[in-house]
Design brief:
With 564 residues, this protein is of the alpha/beta class. Helices cover 59% and strands 12% of the residues. It contains 17 helices and twelve strands. It has a five-stranded mixed beta sheet, with helices on one face. Strands 9-8-10-11-12 form a five-stranded parallel beta sheet, sandwiched between helices. Helix 11 links the parallel strand 10 and strand 11. Helix 3 packs parallel to helix 4, helix 4 packs antiparallel against helix 7 and helix 14 packs antiparallel against helix 15. It is elongated.
Length: 564
């Protein structure tokens, strides 16, 4: 009996110990479950927050995409209006000039309207091209030393007459002393300031537009600011100023026109120049747009002396309007293989009173330049037999020291550097701009002393020549398009694809260098990227761009088939 009680007691103790152990295991398991539950709860909360954040980002991206799409749609609609309006004037006045039965408008007035409308189209295209370069990361900045006073004078000569024509005052107000020299991209700085001035002129109906220039010697900061007494803007309008494809107010586009790209481009340019743009404005009280630039490290600009009498004696380059014709003399050699460009450039040069000799390739150019006495050589870069770069190198090696100006549609900075390394004095872009050509001629030819030409007769002759060149361009365009299509097809199925891509580059280059000059700027714009794409081996992109060019060219050939 005793043994039984002891056994029972021992068994009870074992059961108690087992129960205690089980209880501890259950407690530990419960704690583990609680901890795991808390961990899972934290993970779920983190995921919820992450999902919420990503959802917010997606919503914001969607809203931004929708806004951008609406802005671009509005931009396209606006550009259609902006392009069609000057085209209507160009076509309408050209038709009036052709119709000898009516004399409701003078030929001079018609030509001036055509020129103004053409320049407006050029500004639109320039904005779009700059925007495309910015988006592609291809916008180039060329840093040089230039005279700051001359830049201010150039702004005054370009914008001053336009401002005063509107009945406003225009002032250039330098806060002296100012640097005499500055280091930066003069063309881009000028572009920004001119955009400020053009906007001020556009939105000011009465009062003054002023360009202020100031330099803080302590910080090395140059400020170029344009103020006006125009409409002004509120905070909400200013918040949209620098967004691409948008203007301060929806009604702005309808009332004043424009692409809505100008200030966005200006801000991008300022950033590339290491500067910044600031805006101050209030409704009805005008606006102030300021470009701030930092002095380049180690650059010594010098200063203007604060002496108005001394400044009045500074030599001033006489301003000439782009449509004024210089009177010149001397002999010009033109090396150009394109017959239409030969005729166009020859007419422009001969109109100044200078003589011109034309050759069709680089080898003939070398022979003529070394065998005769020329004041200036205009050298096309892409020519058969011998190209312009090789011809220029040969001339310089042979001791020729006269000015040689490269004519080319390839005007990227690396291209210009290559031409100058070969010995070119300067570069003139194709399509040839008459005002720029005259600037080059004036810089290198002696002044003429003959009588001024009959401006009306000369304008009529130029207009007739441009019409004929346009007709000739269209007459040869079908053959060129067929050759482009052949080269594209052959490049896909030929063992020697490089030869076909090279031929394609040459044909497209011909369109790029001439189309814009004879009234087809869209073809020049579409041709521009193709050469660089082929050179970079990006053939698929080049094919897509060629398809756009072919479509636009066919529309130029058959405008009656375009939708109204």
């Amino acid at each position: 009996m005793t043994v039984s009680i002891e056994s029972t007691a021992a068994a009870g103790g074992a059961e108690a110990a087992s129960a205690a152990a089980l209880a501890r295991e259950l407690a530990a398991a419960r704690q583990a479950l609680v901890a795991r539950d808390a961990e899972l709860g934290a993970m779920i909360a983190d995921r919820d927050r992450e999902i919420a954040a990503r959802t917010a980002e997606l919503v914001a991206a969607r809203d931004a995409a929708v806004a951008a799409d609406r802005a671009k749609s509005a931009f396209v609609a606006n550009m259609s209006h902006e392009i069609r309006t000057p085209l209507t004037s160009i076509i309408g006045f050209a038709e009036l000039m052709l119709d000898r039965r009516h004399d409701s408008v003078s030929r001079d007035e018609a030509l001036r309207t055509i020129i103004r409308s053409g320049r407006h189209l050029l500004e639109l295209i320039s904005d779009v091209l700059d925007m495309s370069k910015i988006e592609a990361g291809c916008l180039e900045i060329e840093i040089t030393d230039f005279e700051l006073p001359e830049l201010l004078r150039d702004v005054e000569s370009l914008i001053g007459p336009r401002v005063r024509e509107k009945g406003l005052q225009f002032e250039v107000l330098p806060a002296l002393p100012l640097p005499a020299l500055w280091r930066g991209d003069r063309v881009r700085i000028m572009q920004i300031v001119m955009n400020f001035c053009s906007n001020a002129l556009k939105f000011t109906e009465a009062g003054t537009v002023a360009l202020h220039a100031g330099f803080d010697a302590a910080t090395g900061a140059l400020t170029l600011a344009v103020t006006d007494t125009g409409l002004g803007m509120n905070e909400e309008q200013m918040s949209r100023l620098f967004q691409p494809f948008m203007q301060a107010d929806v009604s702005t586009t309808r009332r004043f026109g424009g692409t809505g790209l100008g200030l966005h481009i200006c801000r991008e340019l300022a950033g590339r120049l290491g500067g910044a743009i600031t805006v101050q404005s209030s409704p009805g009280a005008g606006s102030r747009f300021a470009l701030q630039l930092a002095l380049a490290e180690g650059f010594e600009p010098g200063v203007w002396h604060d002496d108005s009498a001394a400044r009045a004696e500074e030599p001033r380059r006489p301003a000439r309007r782009g449509d004024e014709l210089p009177r010149l003399r001397g002999r010009v050699l033109l090396a150009e293989d394109g017959e239409q460009n030969q005729r166009l450039i020859s007419a422009m040069v001969q109109a100044t009173g200078a003589e011109i000799t034309v050759v069709g390739n680089g080898a003939l150019a070398v022979e003529q330049a070394l065998g005769d006495d020329f004041d200036l050589v205009l050298m096309d870069i892409q020519m058969p037999v011998m190209d312009g770069t090789e011809a220029t190198t040969m001339l310089r090696d042979a001791g020729y020291s006269g000015p040689i100006i490269a004519l080319t549609a390839n005007v990227m900075r690396k291209d210009i550097a290559q031409y100058k390394q070969a010995g070119c004095t300067d570069c003139l872009a194709k399509p040839i701009d008459r005002a720029h050509l005259y600037e080059v001629l004036e810089a290198h030819l002696p002044c003429g002393d003959g009588p001024a030409p009959d401006r009306a007769a000369l304008d009529a002759q130029t207009a007739a020549l441009m019409r004929q060149l346009g007709r000739d361009f269209l007459a040869t365009l079908p053959e060129t398009l067929a050759e482009i299509e052949h080269d594209l097809a052959a490049a896909q199925g030929s063992a020697d694809t490089q030869a076909h891509w090279t031929a394609l580059r040459r044909r497209v280059h011909g369109i790029k260098g001439l189309a814009g000059a004879v009234g087809f700027p869209e073809l020049t714009r579409l041709s521009q990227p193709i050469d660089a794409l082929i050179e970079a081996g990006r053939h698929a992109e080049a094919e897509r761009q060629c398809a756009l060019l072919l479509t636009a060219a066919r529309q130029a050939l058959h405008p009656q088939e375009q939708p109204a």
